[in-house]
Each structure stands twice: as C-alpha cells, then as structure tokens.
Amino acid sequence: MPYLPSAALLLIGCALLGVFLVRALRVAGRARSVLAATRATVGDQTGLLRARAAGVRVAVAEMRRSPRVSSAGRGETGGRS
Questions:
Q1: pTM confidence score
Q2: How confident is the model at residue 75 (pLDDT cuts 50, 70, 90)?
Q3: Residues 6+ apart with CB under 8 A from 3
Q4: Backbone angles phi, psi at 34, to 5 degrees
Q5: Cα–chain-centroid distance for residue 71?
Q6: What is the rounded distance in angstroms from the CA atom of residue 41 to the CA atom of residue 33?
Q7: For residue 78, is it left (φ>0), alpha (ψ between -120 and 50) or beta?
Q8: What three-state secondary structure class fits 50?
Q9: Beta strands of the chain (E only): which ranges?
Q10: In whole angstroms, how far apart are CA 35 and each of 1, 13, 21, 28, 42?
Q11: Greatest alpha-carbon span in the chain
C-alpha cells in the first residue's frame, strides 16, 4: 500500500485547491459588485456635470442674445439729481 500516502496527499491538495478557488471567487464577486457600484456613481456624477455645463451654456447664450441696456443719462434713473 505504498500508494496510500500519495493518494492522501492528492486528496488534501485537491481540497485545499477547492478552498482557495472558492475564496478567490468570493473576492472576485465582491470586486465585481464594488466596480459596478463605482461605475454607476461615476456615471451619475458625469451626467450631473454634463447637465450643469449645458445649463451654463444656455445661460451664456441667453445673456448674449438679450438686448443691452443703453446707458441712462443723469436724472433719468430716478436717483438724486
């Protein structure tokens, strides 16, 4: 029965390999969920930033389109004369 120690070592090795694979898959699953959450957060923040930039562009365009007020002479503003 000289093959018995070899068989026992093979079984122990396979069991350890299985344990390590299960742990590695758990870590990979956690990393995948963290990556998905981070991607969603970054996407939301990017969308908000784009919306703000679009709002600024619209505001600047409106300011450029609005007619400029001509300067009022003295006494025409209702202030002290």
A1: 0.49
A2: low
A3: none
A4: -65, -40
A5: 49
A6: 12
A7: left
A8: helix
A9: none
A10: 52, 32, 21, 10, 10
A11: 119
From the number of C-beta atoms within 10 Å of its C-beta (0-12, 13-18, 19+), residue 10 rates as exposed
CB crowding 26-49: b at 16 or more within 10 Å, else e: eeeeeeeeeeeeeeeeeeeeeeee
Coil, strand or helix at 6: helix
All residues at 6 or more sequence positions from 75 whose CB lies less than 8 Å from its CB, including other chains: 81
Q: pLDDT tens-digit profile of 19-43? A: 999 999 999 999 999 999 999 999 9
* Residue type, position 75, single letter: G
Residue 75, sorted as left (phi over 0), alpha (psi -120 to 50) or beta, turns out to be: left
